[in-house]
């Protein structure tokens, strides 16, 4: 096992923090932007955090460490030692001071598990850029069964809208295998369990997952699903940048993208997967391998023609911190006509800070997702909605004192952000009712909308 020294941290701090260290500012990033989440330091100091209130800092950190190390298939004695030394290394890293700030003040909740993976990698291998593949079993399972599922899906010839819904619902697949730390908050429902798929052959497992995905799409609620607006935007676009999420979800993304490129012959899509191994998230190496599967021969042809691009400079984490991204990635996003962001963690980190219109797509299944959307995860809300440049979908979730606790029947309690996605959507519906109202009567409505816009764009 390797122990971190202050020299190691000083010389490799940005690598340990999953940071490219290529940008101090960029036209894509709104000036003064701060993600609406909390830092490791805030959790350690006992600040009012609107979830994990029943879990102390030490248990929170130890839970993530045990989850990461426990999935590496190490001998028991080695595993125990890896946890012990990794904990000591993590404490040293978090207490290190850089530029007048302690490192624990520089790490947000959504990226913390990836920093922990970096620390575990150093502990085991002595290199700050060492990767630990703690999702190898799940990703191998996905690689085995998803081509069968995609083939069946192609034979069904479903509409692009349904395929998009399936791709978002894919975030529910295998929650029993992912572990709560990968979501940076506890799961509020069980999703589509896949542990039993290891004992089935790939076609049978694929049939099981597809059946449950189709049922999820049929039974879920759609409080914000702006399909028509997405279609209008795609018809006007020449270039879309698509930030991918999990393995299973990305397989389904590719089905949608292939059908969309057929529908819009002048469209180009650049995929931005992760630059490295981060749990269940798709990497650029994994994405290139998937495209070689015969089931994607049509999409592979579009890739060879230059209509599909794959970035090798995506986030060095499962989430996406704008200030830690590569210049190439930010430039691509800025040059695109439209952004599509898949997954909760990236949405939570990017919303409000991106100076480009973007569609956010995820399914509500986590405690934090309930908080920021105001929606009940038991209904599996499938979301696809557009955020205008620089606008927030929610804010205030880092403030425990500014959040609200609500209860539903069966005592399913959740704490809400100060202003949730649901709040904003209800206010925006006012705009749809202004047609036909005389100018004088419009004034109070317009005044209300001006206040709302100020709240959405607050720095």
Oligomer: single chain
> Main β-sheet: number of strands, strand sense, barrel status?
6 strands, mixed
Give the strand line-up of the largest sheet: 5-4-3-6-7-8
Number of helices, where a helix is a run of at least 4 consecutive DSSP H or I residues: 18
Describe it.
This protein is of the alpha/beta class and 459 residues long. It has helices spanning 6-16, 40-44, 57-70, 76-95, 109-125, 136-156, 160-169, 175-178, 202-219, 227-236, 247-263, 284-291, 297-305, 327-335, 344-350, 367-373, 421-428, 439-456; strands at 97-98, 101-102, 239-243, 268-272, 308-310, 338-342, 358-363, 382-387, 404-407, 413-416. Strands 5-4-3-6-7-8 form a 6-stranded mixed beta sheet, sandwiched between helices. The protein is globular. The termini are far apart.
Topology (elements, then pairings):
Blueprint: H1 6-16, H2 40-44, H3 57-70, H4 76-95, E1 97-98, E2 101-102, H5 109-125, H6 136-156, H7 160-169, H8 175-178, H9 202-219, H10 227-236, E3 239-243, H11 247-263, E4 268-272, H12 284-291, H13 297-305, E5 308-310, H14 327-335, E6 338-342, H15 344-350, E7 358-363, H16 367-373, E8 382-387, E9 404-407, E10 413-416, H17 421-428, H18 439-456
Parallel strand pairs: 3-4, 3-6, 4-5, 6-7
Antiparallel strand pairs: 1-2, 7-8, 9-10
Helix pairs in contact: 3-4, 3-5, 4-5, 6-9, 6-11, 7-9, 7-11
